[in-house]
Amino acid sequence: MAKLIYKFGSMGASKTANLLMTNYNYKTQGFGTLILKPEIDTRTHQVFSRIGIEHECLSFSRDQDLYSTIERLNVHAVFIDECQFCTYEQIEQLAHVVDDLKIYVFCYGLRTDFQSHLFEGSKRLFELADKIEQLPSVCECGNKSIMNERFINGRPTFEGEQIECGAEDKYITKCRKCYFEDQRKFKSETCIDKAI
Q1: Which CATH number fits the domain that encloses residue 47?
Q2: pLDDT tens-digit map of 138-166
Q3: What is the pTM for the complete model shown?
Q4: H-helix segments, the chain
Q5: How far is Cα of residue 149 from the mean position of the Cα atoms in its chain?
Q6: Catalytic center residues
């Protein structure tokens, strides 16, 4: 029976590597697969992992009907990279792909943004997914990393637009304790700067 599967983790949790390995397993068994990625992630037209593996993919827009896109293709499994950028409606379309077309859908992405708020796509996946799995990563202190901290010029920031694509050049993963310590320090420094 097909399932809607959501695998999430902070940056550096090997989400894309996991996607590419699972896709490879399906392909070696003779199943047709499709890899999709929201076009908002303009860094590349391929899905690539930091460990050096990559695969071509199709990009989709925020107003694209994913059900219609997938329905006309002969595939057994669909893999979505950066699924946090999907809309509420697109996640529902993926659920219908599973239920109506009997196609497995694997979604990989972040749970929360740099301000610790759920992304729209992530929120709907928590509500609809048949299976949810957290992929682990480690904070610099050694604890489990669950937060994505944005930084500018080597300093953490907790202000700005929700979406700003990047990797190690803009983000670092933290455990909750280290994240909140940096957030308190940021707020304190911001108050001092405004008072001067």
Answers
A1: 3.40.50.300
A2: 999 999 999 988 887 777 776 767 766 65
A3: 0.86
A4: 15-28, 66-71, 88-101, 120-128, 176-195
A5: 15
A6: 82
